[in-house]
DNA helicase RecQ
Amino acid sequence: MVSTLEILRHTFGYDAFRAPQEEVIQTLMAAKDALVLMPTGGGKSLCYQIPAIARAGVGVVISPLIALMEDQVNALRQAGVAAAALNSSASPAEARATEEALLQGTIDLLYIAPERLLQERTLALLQRSTVNLFAIDEAHCVSQWGHDFRPEYLQLRVLHERFPQVPRIALTATADSKTRQEIIERLALQKAAVFIRSFDRPNIRYHIHSGSQGARNALLRFIRDRHAGEAGIVYCLSRKRVEEVAEWLQGEGLGALPYHAGLSADERRRNQQRFQRDEGVIMVATIAFGMGIDKPNVRFVAHLNLPKSIEAYYQETGRAGRDGLPAEAWMHYGLQDVVQLRQMIQQSEADLPRKQMEGHKLDAMLALCETTDCRRQTLLGYFSEHLALPCGNCDNCLQPPATWDATVAAQKALSAIHRTGQRFGVQYLVDVLLAREDPRIQQWDHHQLTVYGIGKELSANAWRALFRHLLLRGLVEVDAEGHGGLRLSPSSRPLLRGEEKLTLRQHESTTPKRRDKRPE
Ligand code: ADP
Ligand code: ZN
């Protein structure tokens, strides 16, 4: 039998395994299950491709994306591996030929979409063939709380029931501990050996800024000053904005192309090919672009909007610098993004627990944006990974942000919550702090409180931002009934007693307003 190392060298042309490829491959060679958590670009594919080739029979790869599948099949065929795909884009004749080859045992790797796999006909076909492993790619798609949830993935546990002898490997680049647990439970992978590689991408430098204006110009300056002539991706939230930004960059003389789901399949393919092949193309895209992009020298990924979760941010920025050379992740977002994303969550069809989960994910993303600590430590911390020292390669490390001591303001805000009985929402509390005339305040006699009007040094916007921070940091909580009433959480006590300080990033909306001296 050909050794796995020989396959690595002769078929794929690489000298050595990367951690933990070799151990994963050995696990599958021994017909045991594996769960592999590795960042994008880490080299997950070889983990199942090599044992599928080395063992007798066919390795079946379940992948949610047809475009991705075809790239993989083509690359494998070029390397001389007998690979095929079964999906809706194959003609009936092609599908028949593939099925025939399966039964003959002349295919090493079969790529298949989950809905096709789950058809009884396909399962029966596989039972008549010799399957040597099942690889479940993008396994986080089983997570109902994830942004890539695919209902068919839930049914994949049928593989365990129908093919109990066949080892399974689940792979993902997205795995906080909760998703990890979900994958294990939903795919019945309790016995799987788990392989985790650090999510850190030390060659990516992170920059995040906010502000309501000037995003496009800041982007242009960033590209011209730091990435002239280099390939990059610019993510925008809407198709319309993609078109606008692509056109505008073109007008500025840059080689930008649009990519979003509203373009014809043909145009998308053309633009993607140009990005992949040509030098220095900037792809302006919605998140429809990216899964399966394998361009090693993307030098920057820019976001002109806030991603809706840290997972999404990590995955999108992870497309930069796959060659290991310095690359940058740059983001500019506005408060408007937060409002828009919150509305999207509110107005979606999802049930309440799901909406709450999405709300928490957005909050975590915002916490990453607003932190004055090392971005990498915060980011990795979210994935339950601990980085001992600040990284020295993010905006906060390189240029510690201007901050202001918000301790006193926070004490006032917390007192306002406490004195008004811990049941009012942000707007009401701000009205109390600013001593605004409001019949409700009179009705509750809150104009008699000591906190009434003690917050005039900050604008209403600054107070709202401060309350948002208190929420983000878990110092206050929203009532469970969902009326938006705020309560103090136990962790606010040290701050209230003055035993702890609160330091916040200084930006437009949170900076204390200048008080002009006026004659009384
Ligand atoms: P992932 O699926 O984890 O995002 P891929 O499997 O697409 O990553 O691999 C990313 C890149 O790394 C590919 O270009 C792949 O050929 C390359 N690669 C994988 N394993 C090795 C290795 N052992 N040595 C060198 N390059 C590798
Ligand atoms: Zn840092």
